[in-house]
Design brief:
The protein is mostly helical and 182 residues long. 68% of the residues lie in helices and 11% in strands. It folds into 3 domains: 62 residues; 54 residues, no CATH class; 63 residues. It has 10 helices and 2 strands, in the order αααααββααααα. A hairpin with a 2-residue loop joins β1 and β2. α3 crosses α4 and α7 packs antiparallel against α8.
């Protein structure tokens, strides 16, 4: 059986590269592992996953202001329809030459979203949900009371971190609670 590359030194090398560049690819290359291995580790090792998220956040926290301004401008241009390109195609036909122009909305650069602006808190929420599901799957069916307590504790933590309205929108219960009040 092959020796695992998941060692403290490899993990540190990967995390340092991500914190320095904001790029998972840079971390993968620095650690000498494949994309598949990286994402398997993200799923298999909760601590690794958390530390990768922290490294990404460290990059965003230390990101130069000019890069943040470029990312915000790219995103704003996309949101307000200013990020477009025009494609012109010319075609010779028996009736004559036809010219077609098409305006295409372009997406903000991937680096702007992933490295600078961040993937939003949904990544953290999904990681917390995944951890909760793993805990639930490890329980016996007779431990439903414990499951309820774990869910309540995790929801309370989430409420403290992101606020009631955002949690309601995530869970799709905003309408239900408004109807209950009426």
């Amino acid at each position: 059986m092959a020796k695992s590359k998941y060692t403290p030194d490899t993990v540190k090398t990967i995390l340092d590269a991500i914190a320095r560049t904001g790029s998972d690819r840079a971390g993968i290359a620095a650690g000498g592992i494949s994309d598949d291995t990286f994402y398997q580790w993200m799923n298999r090792y909760a601590e690794f996953s958390e530390r990768v998220l922290e490294a990404r956040q460290r990059y965003r926290d230390l990101c130069p202001e000019t890069l943040i301004a470029q990312a915000n401008k790219a995103f704003a241009d996309y949101l307000f329809g200013r990020a477009t390109r025009t494609e012109v195609t010319e075609k010779d036909e028996p009736e004559g030459r036809t010219v077609t122009t098409k305006t295409i909305t372009t997406l903000p650069p991937r680096w702007a979203i992933e490295r600078v602006l961040g993937k939003s808190d949904h990544e953290k929420h999904l990681a917390a949900l995944y951890a909760l599901i793993k805990k639930i799957m490890a329980l016996d069916v007779g431990e439903l009371g414990e499951i309820k307590s774990m869910i309540q504790a995790d929801l309370e933590t989430l409420l403290l971190e992101v606020g009631v309205e955002e949690v309601r929108s995530i869970l799709g219960i905003a309408q239900a609670s408004k109807q209950d009040e009426e």
